[in-house]
Each structure stands twice: as C-alpha cells, then as structure tokens.
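**Folding the chain**
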Amino acid sequence: MREFWFERGGVRLCAVEDGNGRPIVMLHGGLANHWTSLGLVGSLSPRFRVVTPDLRGSGKSHDGSPLTWDRLADDVVALIISVWIAPSSVVCRVAPVPPFVSDFAMPARSRVSSS
C-alpha cells in the first residue's frame, strides 16, 4: 500500500492506493478515515487499483476551515484528476449516499463510470 498526497485549494490531502487495473475510489463516512475501507482493499487490489482518501478534515487530511458538500465533492474530483485520466468507478461505503457523491459525478462525468 502506497500513501500519496495531492493538493486542492491550498490544502494537502492524503490518500492511499494499492493494486493495479481499473481504478476504484473508496470513500469513507463522517468521523472516519481511509482505515474504514482497508478491509475491502485486500480483496479488490488483485484486480483493481484501489484508492481510498482521507477526506478533508479526516485522518491525515487536516483542514480547519468549514466543511461543505461542494468542497468535499471538489476534493474527490481533484483526486481523480491528479491520479489518472481514465474513467474510474466510485464505491461509497456509507448509507445513505452523501449528497456530494452525485455532486462531484456531474462535473466529472467524463472521468467517472458507473460499472
């Protein structure tokens, strides 16, 4: 597993990745971090490139500014753009699906697939 950093809006954000193949981004819920997704990374990484970030204000992605769904959505788009150009799939492990998941999918629809 490899840790890497990307930047958006002057804030350094952390993510980890493992595996090769078609990329999957796994998002954690509130009051959590990338560790909540690690149980699935091992089973997916033999077939996929699994990327799981610490969303803004969580884990190693420190930021003291107010969180908004738009800011989180823009962070996920920045992650997708900074790591690859090919379309990716997004797996969200929280229910109900947070509003920002659909918010980021619209402006990034050319980079995100649903299958």
Summary: Helices lie at 38-44, 69-83, 99-105.
